[in-house]
Task: structure prediction
Amino acid sequence: MTRSLRVAVIGAGPAGTYAADLLTKSAAESGTDVAVDLFERLPAPYGLIRYGVAPDHPRIKGVVTALQRVLDRPGIRFFGNVEYGVDLKLDDLRHFYDAVVFATGAEKDRPLDIPGIDLAGSHGAAEFVSWYDGHPDVPRTWPLRAREVAVLGVGNVALDVARVLAKTADELLGTDIPDNVYEGLRSNPVTDVHVFGRRGPAQAKFTPLELRELDHSPNVEVVVHPEGIDFDAASLAAIRSNKQVEMVVRTLQEWAIRDVGDRPRRLYLHFLEAPVRVLGSTEVTGLRTERMELTGDGGVRGTGEFTDWPVQAVYRAVGYLSTPLVDLPFDHGTGTVPHRAGRVLDLAERALPGVYATGWVKRGPVGLIGHTKGDALETVTSLLADAPALPAAPARDPGAVVRFLEQRAVPFTTAAGWLRLDAHEVALGASRGRARVKVVNREEMTGIARP
Result:
């Protein structure tokens, strides 16, 4: 007799959606009948694709098309505007599902422990990204008052933040940015954006495509400080062995020796400059960095040479961090749920029956979107291997969880409701000659999705 398996996935970003996709496909191949319900605390799906990717990245947002095909598949349901730990907890989920997969991602800023980092005018990159992407749970205004800005970090998020800060608002008007974001960026007085990395160019974490996109704006001059273009034995080995590293380094070298043009705004890339202090008494008045030198193995050490940069705002883009989940163990050092091959472990390192994790909450905020598929495959493989021994959930009627949410007066959205919201945003955009205008207010989003 074919085993019927009911699975809840918490988080409808790429990690959770890929897990649902692989679960249904792999289960069908093994003769297991599986039904998957995706729960998302926001009214709309797609997680960081919708709320973490810069608005001028339509190519990356094309991933949405693939994710939507998963949501359209029979056997997969979407419940938006449902928050784990508030609207339902682990015991509730175990009542309705044989297994639970946590794919809650990472959307908080990793802290940076240097003096002055908490001054007014010092911000986490994730907070700024949430603002310009129209996240419903953040303020609608942003303090864009600085003419000179520092961005700390040399990953893709740092480049996104630097690029959005440096571009004019009109350059982003063709994207899906909300009206309040356009108005905020239109009054942005910035003239100079400085991006600082403590290691060398061969250790930068951004992709070649992301780097080259910096140079596409007619209003932004990209300047690479030649002092930071340095390589040790480990750097040269990385360049020889990794095509992407080679492409990044070649681009940076070319930019470091070219003449500086006369575009009205400037974006500087500084390598081997480690932030050591944010200057100011009550608000940011500058940034102090220490000149670093490569140590031969890809590491760096300080030289004791310091520079003060006259900036009035600082954005730290040194990584994302997951938040603890109710009723689950959490490793605060790594910012992840402890696991073994996706099986969540208790404090005694024993697998919690029927509880799994995938994505950034499992492995940390590393890797690109494509890495999420391989990560989900490991977790799904573990789940399906465990399936014959998993206790059956008591309430197996698919309508039971719907009645549960309705009894708790949770205004949840569905896949059909998301399509209504999607169509509404596209129609808003069409009326203004744009592809889409994103709806920001949570109540407005749920009102459109729940007619």
User: Anything to note?
Assistant: The two ends are 41 Å apart (CA to CA). The chain has a mean pLDDT of 94. Residues 4-106+322-412 form a domain with the Rossmann fold fold (CATH 3.40.50.720).
